[in-house]
Fold Hybrid sensor histidine kinase/response regulator.
Amino acid sequence: MLLNPDTPEEPDRRLPGIPDSEIGRRMVATDWASTPLGPVDGWPRSLRIAVGICLNSRFPMFVWWGDALVNIYNDAYIPVLGKKHPGAFGQPARQWWSDIWDVLGSQVEEVMVHGRPTGTSAPCW
């Protein structure tokens, strides 16, 4: 079952198919206007699509968006976060991953600054 925000916005300005799940409900309940991302109806289509794909995946996924790398993740990613959930949702990634930012920071730079894919063969958490 999918949740739909009760807003009169154009369909293409809403998030596609928010799942009826813990994170889906958190997604709808979050005051996005008070985050660096701003209100959902102002999000670029690419962010709305990325979030829709992330939220509906059964595999652990997250989206870090914008200069602040605002953290949006799906239900399958909750175990990866451990005690960082639910506080990390909708917040800048760096503040929640400060304990391993020495590893993550360089990976983020590879993607965001140089446009190169990156990853690790072993979890760093």
In short: Residues 101-112 form the longest helix (12 residues).
